[in-house]
Specification:
The structure is a homotetramer. Chain A is 65% helix and 4% strand. The radius of gyration of chain A is 30 Å and the shape is elongated. The two termini of chain A are 43 Å apart. By secondary structure, chain A is mainly α. In chain A, helix 15 runs antiparallel to helix 16. In chain A, the strands form two sheets. A two-stranded antiparallel sheet of chain A has the order 1-2. A two-stranded antiparallel sheet of chain A has the order 3-4.
């Protein structure tokens, strides 16, 4: 459904994932293969030049390619035929050297690798933008108190800065992970029919080396026609990023609920309305990330299921990857782009955060009070006293502060003013500031490393 | 990747799954809603007619819709806006009644339901074609001996008719299942903002009844905005069909292996060749079904994962369904269409089947011989004798027949001619014929039921 | 992790899924097979009796079975060996007839079918209990106003009864679905080595008929050793039930959030506490259902992926089902049991529901007001007026009621008292009551049908 | 189903994944936490010692733990209670310091991390054993000709050494990947209620540092209670390993088919037999790896789906991981162990490999012949000639060699003896030897790196 693409996708990235981009990437392979076979002395330089001259997608009839691919079983066969025909018009000798020594899968796999490299070239700076905007949120809200929530219940106070630092830290892990995966997994595919480069005789390896150099791709020790762990690793890295984006979106959308209203997505003309409810401001950016996070696990599973490929080149497994991996790449790009926009314009209502902290009869301070009481009356006794007070506060719908204030066991150890201070979130930050410092320092170090 | 569509898809079906078809289905909903609100006395008949007059996809700018959908968060909002603007040109009063009482999801869900109904209208006769061609295979090969294989090893002889009857029986189960699912799961969606039809006051139910009748869709007791079990059931039915198509394709592709060569996909100009190997006849139809079977489980999982939708209408889960379910529908159609073509032109080499039966030193007859010996020498003794003979045949690479012929324990009970007869597959069919009769009778009964 | 079982599982059901239950179910098959072969004249009645006498799990060494199964590749081989040895002690002739005509998979598959039938015998009344408790909730809260929420935002008012009716309706659909699946999918498996019953000569079919009758299982036209659509359908039905349980749990846990506090899980000694926070009452029952809903899609996908089984009996696919399907059954039972307890003791705070309705500056009434204004000032004008008022209310943090009250366009059409009435949720129920009646009537009809 | 464990699992590894091992790992955390809080001056050294003295699983009642965990919602709460009670018998003061500053999830997550570290300690040398045995296969069969197969059809000749080198190379990639994942993903979890270590006041960080050192686990900048990308990455690495094991098992089982008979799993008493067919030698080891490969994608998907966890600690997602990740670990261990045994005893029939190469009328040599002819008659003409010859050979069921020998276009360029030489697989190895050298060199370098 192309109509839904703008909702879920990122146009700048989608450009790299179009049919035309796929064909161009395969033609880039064919042009480079021509140059590499020439450099290795397999074909004349002039033939290589003649081939390269036609390796532009604009010269090809995509609709015809699509129809012929259906018969042939893959896209490379008709592409090579069309290319050969084009070259033959100018240079019959060169035409005989098109796709020399390669098999269809060499062109399709390397084309995919080139496409993915370009696509990751877009998501890399977008991840950086997201990380920088998250870092700014962390900075700004280091000390902003907010209810920490566990099991979807208020637990103990924390800071919004610490929450955002958790998001930032995860995003930076993914950046490192994607950098590593890109370097390790996007490698040249060239093996010929069964991976031995036999059709190139004793020139196979020199051709492979030249081709790898030409395309600036690592040359693996062996072709990987039926060993797909590199693509599975990439798919998993994308799926994991999407999972983190989904987690951030879940947090934001929970905080956007009408009754919490701690965060809002940026507003905008025509953005997030309803076809029937005039007051609605829907979390549309979060919806994109959550929808992607719902879809990614199944797509990742498909890439893993497709790994069991038969023999030198498999049946069905390879074909299952084609749409799945580009779909994952597109979903990742879309979720990233939309959530980066959400974070960039995120509206943080720290007043409401404070208000929500106080809304639960003060029960959220129970752990801190128990800890403080424990220092004076012993930890077991403190636990008993505070649990009883919580139960009473709940049953009588009274503030915990009131209940404790009239409890002799408490007032024996704490003056009223001391007790009041325990109901302030600032005093219960623990190591939050230190953790934030570490996360920000790591973020800065990464940025410095990239800048250098 | 639209380029790969012709490989994996079925053009006739894909027509129903295009963007234009989606928009038209939503417009069919809007037109029918206009008529239904008129019939229920909510809006004037003239307004309904004015609305319906514009409900044709040709009048809409799909690219603009797509762009606006990205901002709005769904497709219905800009579609209703464009429709309202179109209607307003002719009839300002009617324009105020466009989409009356409905929410975006009503239009999108019912549109999807209408699309799926049309798509299933294509796959139903195609499944029938596949079933009929399988039935013809069963008839033709009732008694054709072939090696039964378990754990991917030759086991005991069976008939190709029985194998094909297993395929046919499964396909007919899916036909019954899809009929039931279609009737049960493709129902009207109309609920308004939160499913109470509140914006229609006390006319909500009459409108819903009129709309259901107009669109010939069952009217459920309640809207199902956030209860997606019907769609999950449909997705599972499609996924299960694909699983069976994959199983048939696995069987055919195993039998097509060079060393077995019992079956071949139909040949054809430009079909199943290789970009480098001149002798290749690849099982391209099987590849389509196997690729679909590799992809379907993950897509089915997505539909199940999306079921956990929040409140009256959810966030992220609903959006995850849009592309997933139509993708499953398209993969099913493609796998079905391609495999139906494979079966229609399947080349069965019964001579090679017989030859393969004899290729394994006659070990495939061991169970039958053991059974026959058991009747005369007792089952335990027979098992001991035959196991020992198998081991010797294997170790000495001699035919089992020879080894048994010189075994005194055997010759005491069986004359040489009797023993030879045990190495003929025809004598070991068991209930195969009866099973085949039952499957064919059920197939015929179904056809008769449909014809009546 | 058996330690986690009590958390996620339902002990009464788990009894049916133990190793001992599996072995007993397989022994039930062997005993019945003995009787069936006797009835069909294949073996003496006395042998059947001798076999049946030993078909009790208590006589078997499960640890030895497990060890031997690891060598043999499945559980049936050593079980049949142990059974044969036991029978041989009493009756050597009978021993030769153990497992007569069957293959390992016949015993394992039919054993699984028997186990699943028993397990569904537990979940059926538990689903009924859940449905009845939901029906009671619907009755009690037909008219209880609550905020309808879409996209995780307050949308328009609805009733808690309608929300619960949605849950009830889905649960009743699942009850019907499971009844149908149980009848259709739990069928006898008996085919011998390759599904032809060849080892039983011409007595195969009579044996199969007698066995099906003895075990009260439908007899399919063909064995289904490598056609697993029936199990996939059952897995999908379980997964879909779990999805609905997850949806209900999501709704309940969202309503239990500290800031909403509309619903609470039943409290209990030691239930839902925290190891560190004394005030915590965690939604532990919801967590079980949500965890099950997170796990089920992947398990369902596995059952679908396993459908592509080779030849007469497959390699790897069949084995992948063994733990997956019983795991799904167990997760379904656990989620059902825990959520049924949650619903049975659900604490509904209708006061808080009302309070939350009023908390969003009255914006939740916007759609209703727009509808009412539309009747007097025209729908387009009403939409414009209300949207502007919502924007102002939001920007100035004032109640929508106040903003509208001073808007001349509104006061021209509505007296103050009329306007105030529009801010009462009761007037905006639409067809909710009618929908509830239909759902309750269907529930009652089902109960009556079962009772009769 | 514990009964099936020996089939699919590896006992040595399963020891690390038992309930007792889980509890012990959590107790290891509690003991170390006691020491760390003492070192940081939070509790007395004597208390730490008193706590550690009881941190042995043998002192705990696992059945009671399980029952209480069901009420509490997790295992840590009753474990901490039992531990506290045990410590209190000796030292009431120490009892108050049990689990000081930690939350349940700290104990459960770190316990899991410790378990996984131990489990990976078993699989690491087993992967090494597999790699070494594969390297030996590569060495032994560098030049053994075998049919290369693509799309499940014979394609062109290759060597069994090259095929095994592909397996080896993939296994070595996984070894590197698992080493990296282990170092990166198995980190300490310690955060207290909401990740701020607030209950430890200003001593949180020193405690965390001391604990990390004590357990020899990396200390992350932040707790990861609701950020599960590390576990997802580990799950993906395990799933990917399983995918490769499945691919190897698929290749071996295809080569073990009766009609190919190129490879056999090692035989053994009671191994791979049938309950009814005396001749059967089933590929039981391959079945284990293939079943694991069928199950892993769904389990990996579950870990990814579980990533969307709410707030500081989530609801349902975390709980979904507990059984899923240990199940993946167990399946990986089992598949690895069984397949390592298969490879260690693999029976390679190089004679049969040669025979199969020649079985397909010599068509497998078509690409090589076309290449050779191309050098003399031009590539386009050669393609035309060879394709026509293949078609004729197929139609007339004659050897390709014969057809070409009488083709004037061929005999003009090739003498009979020259032509014959083209039908020898040895001449068509291309870069296979070089690739093998590289893979073996990398393997040796890795081994040297580990030995040093």
């Amino acid at each position: 459904m192309r109509l839904f693409d703008p909702l879920f996708r990122w146009p700048a990235l989608e450009e790299e994932l179009t049919d035309a981009a796929r064909v161009q990437a395969m033609l880039d392979f064919e042009a480079a293969l021509g140059r590499a076979t020439a450099r290795a002395g397999v074909i004349p330089e002039a033939s290589a030049a003649a081939i390269a001259a036609h390796c532009s997608v604009a010269r090809f009839d995509l609709a015809a390619l699509a129809r012929q691919a259906a018969l042939a079983g893959n896209l490379a066969i008709p592409l090579v035929e069309q290319l050969t025909a084009l070259v033959a018009r100018d240079d019959a000798a060169a035409a005989a050297h098109v796709h020399r020594g390669a098999t269809s899968q060499d062109a399709i796999d390397t084309g995919l690798v080139l496409q993915l490299r370009r696509a990751l070239g877009h998501t890399q700076p977008e991840l950086e933008r997201l990380a920088n905007d998250l870092a700014a949120l962390v900075e700004a809200h280091r000390a902003t108190p907010v209810a920490g929530r566990t099991w979807m219940q208020q637990a103990v106070p924390t800071t919004f800065g610490l929450k955002a630092a958790g998001w930032l830290d995860a995003v930076n892990r993914h950046r490192a992970r994607l950098d590593a995966v890109r370097a390790r997994c996007l490698v040249l595919q060239l093996g010929g029919a069964v991976g031995s480069l036999a059709a190139l005789g004793d020139r196979g390896w020199p051709v492979a080396e030249a081709l790898a150099q030409d395309l600036a791709l690592p040359l693996p020790d062996l072709p990987w026609h039926a060993h797909r762990d590199r693509l599975a690793e990439l798919a998993a890295a994308l799926g994991s990023c999407i999972g983190t984006l989904g987690k951030i979106a879940r947090d934001i959308s929970l905080a956007m609920q009408t009754e919490l209203a701690e965060l809002s997505e940026p507003a905008g003309e025509g953005r997030g309305g309803s076809s029937t409810m005039p007051q609605k401001r829907n979390p549309v950016g979060c919806a994109v990330a959550l929808a992607a996070a719902t879809r990614a696990p199944g797509l990742v599973a498909t890439m893993f299921a497709a790994m069991v490929q038969e023999g030198e080149r498999g049946l069905g497994g390879w074909q299952a990857e084609w749409e799945t991996l580009t779909e994952l790449m597109g979903l990742f790009g879309g979720a990233l782009h939309h959530l980066a926009d959400v974070v960039a314009g995120l509206d943080v209502d720290s007043g409401r955060m404070r208000q929500n902290l106080d809304a639960g009869q003060g029960l959220i301070f129970a752990e801190g009070i128990q800890t403080a009481l424990g220092e004076r009356m012993g930890r077991s006794e403190a636990r008993r006293v505070v649990q009883a007070a919580c139960a009473r506060a709940r049953a009588e719908r009274r503030p915990l502060h009131e209940v404790l204030a009239v409890d002799g066991a408490v007032s024996r150890h704490f003056a009223a003013s001391e007790l009041a201070r325990l109901f302030a979130p600032d005093g219960y930050r623990g190591s939050a500031d230190r953790m934030i410092e570490r996360v920000l320092a790591a973020h800065t170090a990464r940025a410095a490393g990239e800048g250098s």
